[in-house]
Amino acid sequence: MQVNSIMKKYSDSVVLKGVSFDFKQGEIVGLIGSNGAGKSTLMKIIAQTIQTYDGSVDDNTHVGYLIEEPKLYSNKTGLAHLTYFSEIYGNKFNLSEYEELLKGLQLSDVLKRKVKEYSLGMRQKLGIVISLLNKPRYVVLDEPTNSMDIETSLEVLQQLRKMANEWNVGILISSHKLEDIETICDRVLFLEKGNIVGEQQFNEQSQYVVKLVFENPTELALFIENQKFGSIIDSSEKTIQIETTAENTEIFQFLNQLGIRVTDFTSEKKTLRNVYMNKLRGGYDDTKYQKLC
Ligand SMILES: Nc1ncnc2c1ncn2[C@@H]1O[C@H](COP(=O)(O)OP(=O)(O)OP(=O)(O)O)[C@@H](O)[C@H]1O
Questions:
Q1: Residue nearest to atom 9 of ligand 1 (CA)
Q2: What domain range is 220 assigned to?
Q3: Cα of 235 from ligand 1 centre, angstroms
Q4: Looking at this predicted complex, what is its ipTM?
Q5: Whole-model pTM?
Q6: What is the CATH number of the domain that holds 233?
Q7: Which positions fall inside the ABC transporter domain (predicted)?
Q8: What is the band of 278 on the pLDDT scale with cuts at 50, 70, 90?
Q9: Both 13 and 143 in a single domain?
């Protein structure tokens, strides 16, 4: 799917300012950004529930979506919802096709219960299954795990990964739960004030951000000239930061070979939270998260 230069205005306020990106079937792409950044608006445009905007979205004819709360009927059972929504999409609901998914989401045993007896998380999970009923090539999920506990979120994320792999569905998922995004996504887009301001690719290997402080600029220059650990993300007179998959011991051995002793060394696992906070939000202030009462 190709999203081209999307612009959206509400009255005088421009909430999307020319957003472009693409994503493939089978790929899971995360969308993160502050409150009001424009994530839901962008997702509604892709899902075609908003139709007035500038720009274009190619290949969005087979899109399933769950944006905000799922629209459910409290007096109807889960099964009745699946039958009803399948019919809306012109299909007959075939339980065997969705059995594994429903089981994986712990919904099989509650399908005959009325939705008014469902917890928030169960409703959300039913909404996810409904979004998959029209055999979509792409699914857009706006904060699908926001009302779920850690274990339930993980169950859902596992099932979404399976859907992406086995049904070749491309998934665009937004969340403020960065750990969820990090667990499931192949790639993450950062949306701020209506613009995509960054992108992060995930690979299998752990990445570290290593900071080294040298005794003098000459030693720093010697290190830069010879190092093959990874890309340099920042450097000053005696300090350097690199992104690397190397373990600390490998770096120390290398420094020994060069005859260099550093005056400080820190290594931090690169998480989505520290990339997001450091690069895009001007730093991560840990003190804000100290006990507040
Ligand atoms: N129907 C609407 N009419 C007017 N303004 C709207 C409408 N829907 C959204 N907005 C405004 O558009 C901006 C983007 O909202 P949107 O819901 O897309 O952000 P978001 O990134 O999904 O936020 P959140 O993380 O809080 O869900 C906000 O300033 C919001 O107030």
A1: 41
A2: 208-269
A3: 38
A4: 0.97
A5: 0.84
A6: 3.30.70
A7: 1-218
A8: low
A9: yes
